[in-house]
Amino acid sequence: MIALAFCNASAMRRGGIMLQLTDFTGRRAAAALIAAAGLLTGLALAPRAHADDGYRLWLRYVPVHGAWLARYRRSAAELVPGGALSPTLRAARAELERGLAGMLGRRLPSAPSVTAGGAILFGTPHGSPLIRALRLGLRRVGREGYVIRTITVRGHPTTVIAGNSEVGVLYGAFRFLRQIQTRRPIDALDIVSRPKIRHRILDFWDNLDGSVERGYAGDSIWKWDELPQYLSPRYSDFARACASIGINGVVLNNVNASPYVLTPLYLAKVAALAGVLRPYGIRVYLSVPFSAPITVGRLDSADPLDAAVQAWWRRKVAAIYREVPGFGGLLMKADSEGEPGPENYGRTQAQGANLLARALAPYHGILMWRAFVYSTNPHSEDRVKQSYDIFKPLDGKFDRNVILQVKNGPLDFQPREPFHPLFGAMPKTNLMLELEITKEYLGQQTSLVYLGTLFEEALRADTWARGRGSTVARVIDGSLYGERQTGIAGVANIGSDRNWCGSIFNQSNWYAFGRLAWNPDASARAIAAQWVRMTFTDNPAFVHPVVRMMMASREAVVDYMDPLGLASQMAAGTHFGPGPWVAPGPHLPPDWSSTYYSRADATGIGFDRTASGSDAVAQYAAHVADEFASLRHCPEDLLLWFHHLPWTYRMRSGRMLWDSLVLHYARGVDEVRRMRRTWHRLARYVDPQRFRLTAAFLAIQQQDAEWWRDASIAYFQSISRLPLPAGVAPPPDPLKAYEAFCIPFVEGTPGAGPACPPDDSPVPH
């Protein structure tokens, strides 16, 4: 138990504690050159914002201001430890010290006992008889939840932060600090919170050579060549950020896994990282290749029914747990994109998964088995059907510690997809949702795209598996079918860049994932507002327009990339920039090409997935299938996902489909222009460093959006042969110029990207 003296009792009785503040600024020291580069013109109109490189994320803890603050500072007392501290409670105390000192503008002294009136008391019933005696009703918050309550203890008003576990106390400490950061009252707290999802995991697609597949923020933060001897302070800062939003697991390496991660050399490095993350409630997991018994174990086979293979996995898992106490489990990508799997041996996905699950079971480890499995048969009817067709017949055949990891949509992290039909279709199997936080198909590093709206859309999608209200969120939190192994995973967007995520606004997607993983029913808009207040300023003149900008950003990208349900229209290989003309070839399977998905021809556009086409709609519950199959009821933002329609088809607006398509492209560009204008008006509220970076990236995004619009319109007009709607200017370049343009290297792309001829072809306007 720890008591932190907070303010005197008389001050609390006079009016309690409520932060009523209008502004806060950063105090982080900057390099002399940056400081000299300094302030933008016009900053005299608002309080000056000091330089900030984005390293502190949403945990900036900058000083608060106002007449009330002086009173608050005078009454602050001392930190008082109450007995021996575990590493986790030390982390909680350190965070409270850091947060309150930063927001108060000075450090609080330590003392052996409470000498002032009020206090912050935090701990567990197991460690503190006082907390145990308070009868806070902690049973309802489970192992990781917390209670924060303002009560009177021994005659003094006290804020209590308590949980059944020490990590629950840590989460509560972050919540209390967030209450102050976002200017919420703290004089009469009664907060009860527990995570709805058990496993809340970041998946790092980091390779052992330091590169990051689909990573757009520099190299890997894991410095394998320095481990285990040197532990970068960045690791603990990463852990703090994760704990602040309730993330409790990290898969350290790429799903396209190297077998070397299972060798003693690398397991010692994994153990060192686990030691840093453990006090923050974070377990480590590893991605492993299905072929490891061959490549590492020197066996002749990886057949899951081979007794020698089973014995090898048992020995290997036992060795991992000896080296890495508290290890979480394994992640497997099999039979996908060239990765080996049980199909190599004529076995089912369940037989392959259960092989590893049984090796993990004695240690209470879990196996996350990705459902991203599809045939490489070039004559496949419809790629989006394949995962369902493979896994649905296996419902109930997976062991209890297997969690099937299913992407939010049936294709591959597109700007918009319908929800994956496996959600709601496997009531006897643990399912977890896989989201992509890194923006592989969404402008990658430089585009401002707030993914909270995409995550919210996926979680709130109604499967109708047990009638109305059978949302994806209820599938993965266990409330629909009663599963105990519940989970959600996000492909991390974190790298070695100083600001962690490549851009400041990319940080919001890491934050939104964690907040929605804790509570999948939370509001994406409220999360955005919270992030803005903690990351920039609480000034409503800044918060409101930035939140509006964030909430519109994802729809803008859908408009200028893949409107009306189109999908996968990007350039081959890099997934950056438009490529609606990309067609199958000798080295490009049909279902990796853009034309496969648009089906654009002289008669119309769109993929027919109704009964007259691939009948993918039949994989959904009857109510959903009927809606998607009906032109009258199908959401127009998914229209071309499910229907092939004439160019002259009349939309609900009365416009032709062709006109509507073109206007969506134009609308997306217009929204990015509005975002740029909004940001420019807000310069006075942002430090110059972060303002300039965001302004530069928005300029790049506008250029990219115009490129997408012009290239897409040029291509589809060459097929439709229809005139542009009134007021829309034609693309400035001929179609051949867009088709010839090629970017040979893009960060985060495996290999060298596409083969581009080294010629002098001009860049399209």
Task: Identify the overall geometry.
Answer: globular
- The CATH topology name of the largest domain reads TIM Barrel
CATH class of the largest domain: Alpha Beta
Structural class: alpha/beta
Overall pLDDT: 89
Task: Outline the biggest β-sheet.
Answer: 8 strands, parallel, barrel
* CATH homologous superfamily grouping of the largest domain: Glycosidases
CATH architecture of the largest domain: Alpha-Beta Barrel
The first-to-last residue Cα distance is 64 Å
The number of helical segments is 23
Number of domains: 3
The overall strand count is 16
Low-confidence stretches: 1-48, 70-83, 111-117
Strand order of the biggest β-sheet: 7-8-9-10-11-12-13-14
Round the Cα radius of gyration to an integer and report it: 27 Å
Strand fraction: 5-15%
Helicity, as a percent range? 25-40%
Structure description:
By secondary structure, this protein is α/β, with parallel strands linked by helices. It has three domains: 2-24 and 63-193, Chitobiase, domain 2 (2-Layer Sandwich), CATH 3.30.379; 199-527, TIM Barrel; 560-607 and 644-740, Alpha-d-glucuronidase, C-terminal Domain. Helix content is 35%, strand content 10%. It has helices at residues 9-15, 32-37, 67-75, 87-104, 129-134, 166-181, 233-244, 264-277, 292-295, 307-323, 349-360, 383-391, 452-460, 472-476, 507-518, 524-535, 540-561, 594-598, 622-629, 639-642, 657-681, 688-720, 735-740, and strands at residues 2-5, 79-81, 119-123, 146-153, 156-162, 190-193, 199-203, 249-251, 283-288, 329-332, 366-370, 402-407, 430-436, 487-491, 604-605, 645-646. Helix 10 (307-323) packs across helix 11 and helix 13 packs antiparallel against helix 16. The chain is globular and about 80 Å long. The termini are far apart. The model is unreliable at 1-48, 70-83 and 111-117 (pLDDT under 50).
